[in-house]
Amino acid sequence: MLTRLRFIARRLALAIPTVLFIVVANFVLLHLAPGDAAEVLAGEAGSATPEMVARLRTKFGLDQPYPVQLARYVGNTLTFDLGYSQRHGMSVAELIGKRLPATLLLMGTTIVIAVGVGVLLGVLAARGLNTWRDHLISVLALLSYATPLFWAGLMLIVLFAIKLDWLPTSGMETVAAFYEGPKRIADIARHLVLPAVTLSLFYLALYTRLMRAAMLEQADMDYVTTARAKGLDERSVVVHHIVPNALLPVVTMAGVQIGALLGGSVIVETVFAWPGLGQLAFDSLFARDLNLLLGIFFICAILVVIANLFVDLVYTWLDPRIELG
Amino acid sequence: MKGFRWLASAVVVIAMVVLTPIPALAQKTGGTLVMIVQPEPPSLASYQNTSAPIGQVSAKIYDGLLEYGFDFKPQPSLAKSWTVSPDGKTITFKLQEGVKFHDGKPFTSADVQFTYMNVLKKVHPRGPITFRDLEAVETPDPLTAVFRFKEAAPYAMVALSGYESPILPKHVFESGDLMNHPNANKPIGTGPFKFVDWEKGQYIRLDRNPDYWRKGQPYLDRIVMRFIADAGTRTAAMEKQEAHIAAFSAIPGVEVNRLKAMPAIDVTTKGYEMVSPLVLIELNTTKKPLDNQKVRQALSYAIDRKAIIDTVFFGFGKPATGPISSNFEANGFYTNDVRNYAAPNAVEMANKLLDEAGYPRKADGTRFEIVHDIIPYGEDWRRMGELIVQQLGKVGIKTTLRYEDVPTWLRRIYTNYDFEFNSNFLFTLPDPVLGVHRTYWSKNVRPGAPFSNSARLTLPKVDQLLEAATVEPDQAKRAKLYQDFQKAVVDEAPVIWVTELQFTTVTSKKLKDYLVSPLGVYTSFNRAWLE
Predict the structure, then answer these.
(1) Enclosing H/E stretch for B116
(2) Which of B321, B363, B298 is nearest to B486 (CA)?
(3) Touching check for A266 and chain B: CB below 8 Å?
(4) Residues in A 32-51 with any Cβ partner in B closer than 8 A
(5) Is B2 exposed, middle or buried (0-12, 13-18, 19+ CB in 10 A)?
(6) What is the pLDDT of residue B17?
(7) Is A61 left (phi over 0), alpha (psi -120 to 50) or beta?
(8) Are the Cβ atoms of A161 and B48 closer than 8 angstroms?
(9) Which residue of B has its CA nearest to A173?
(10) What is the complex's ipTM, to 2 decimals?
(11) Which of B76, B114, B361, B403 could bond to B170 as cystine, CB 3.0-4.6 Å?
(12) DSSP B100
């Protein structure tokens, strides 16, 4: 237990320079983009005088030299002060705090569906190698892997929301109804189905194929022969021996893809008007709302660090031979 | 015999249907209106940002002194009546009695004075132009506000709506930083709807103001504005009747024509007469070969406006003839007695002018190359760019498209002037002073000011006409000045006027009486109701 805690503490300490590097790199990269938030606001307003743009710039702190802005930003970040979004008139922490639950809900559900169903299909395919079941699963996996997310999302909307009228088209809840309590939970769950399924499709295909390959690889290993020789029935061999070992690459992949999942969620959030971080990041890039964008990247970096730490811990649970240290 | 009985009963049924008197439509109260607003507004501070999404929300919360009929004539709102002095320099407003802000405090002339002198003149994007000659707002008593102008300001009279000039509560906004006010996104007005909640990324909720000064109104219990970033999903939401209204072409043109055929959906292009968006192409008049008037005229001849309207805008639009929209025909400002770039022999004219200007076709059939910057506001503009490449190709001009994101593009066009041929659309607003002068007046060559005179036209004759029209109180004389201005500037061709853009509003047929003004969805919806 103590080693485990020490391991976590050390990993977190190592993460600090990584995250700091990400913050600085993001800052520098984003400031390379031409145009700034003051110009965008003035452009949106339709008409504005140069004096007004200058006044906005002073107010946003954009008139300071870059090194000063950078030093100030890093200093603030170290104290977890993510600054203020001038565009939204809200603190960045508050804005992210409001959006983070929606993203976590969508991501969490997606990972559960993608890993769960992916692993199940992978096992089924591997167990029925070269039968119609295997072929069917492989074809389905290939199809969902090759379908662009935005198109899949729109088609699901057309089918399930418009033609069949089973599910709502978009949003996180029925906004005009203002449900509360259990009714609200049920309402959110209904709204979650399509975006989560859409986002899962791509990853599900990946995990299915990965799991199938890993299963086949493990099935030829000596320990499997040993287990069979011991007289274990086929079911036990698969469930207790092959699957836990075959899961390792899937878990690795899932950990790596948490970051990519955030990227994919931009599209799904846009299509389904899901009020998560992805859409916020997308909008703030085009508005040059850099404080907010940097804040989102910062939170994402931390999410990825935590997810990978979690994956390492899952390894030791799946395969006791792996030691922390 | 059986057949006859069937026929007889059918006749009776039809007769009953036809003869049953249709009850007079009475407004039903109650219900929640769901409105799609695209994109999500950056803030609700309509006193410092006039972008369309903000106006659609804020106009429900803030009233103005006046409202407008489709004839552009002012109608009472917070101002019960008004008188304009003969020289146009003094306007006296009598205010409604018993009006309360949403926080229960009474509305008085002090709020009017504060709004105009301390807010609109200072932080509103157009305010410093619209109210530059407004020297003082006097308040002889709580229900009288007297506007004193240095010069007559005929254009100011059409800029007093709740969208353009929202009346703010002095007691709320006088303390604190106006540029960054805590109530910017928690607006308190006198309008028919009260601000309740803004769930960022999802919706804004407004509830009925039970103490609204027009007794018995509004009819709706609630308005919810939803934000859906994807155009396909917005269409699906309208189709499934999850939302009742989507304005400012939130539903793409290709889908509008499909939705129009549905029995439950209405489509209109009315309600934008005080917005009057104009699609134009700004030419950099300081750069070769565009410094040559003949070349600019040739480019204008080369553009096939009809083809653009039909293919890019799905028929929603009218060919533009010059800087002033034909919506201004009613008050005499508009004229089409100008050089006609949509002439039947336009391509021939273009070729002739280019030859004359000293740009003959080279061996490969081309004359010169230009770069076309595309306004980065969506797919339509990119498609228009592709069509323009073909159209200019016909007269021997090789065109390359350049597409950047909004901040990059704004800086390129309006700060660095590093462009040749830029597509754009501008709201020309209820008066030329507000929406037209900025593009052609030499004093609006102002680096860093978005949507100013980027063509960098400096023509003394144009300047004189515009300056005279600004302060001319007589409507007929003003109209003459604007007609002369159109003739002069159209001939100079610093800009190619392409189309008068028609925005579409898609609504559910259940929504009634929302369209009562040339400001369309920029109004308070105090009379709107749901069947």
Answers:
(1) none
(2) B321
(3) no
(4) 33-36, 39-50
(5) exposed
(6) 45
(7) left
(8) no
(9) B202
(10) 0.79
(11) B114
(12) B
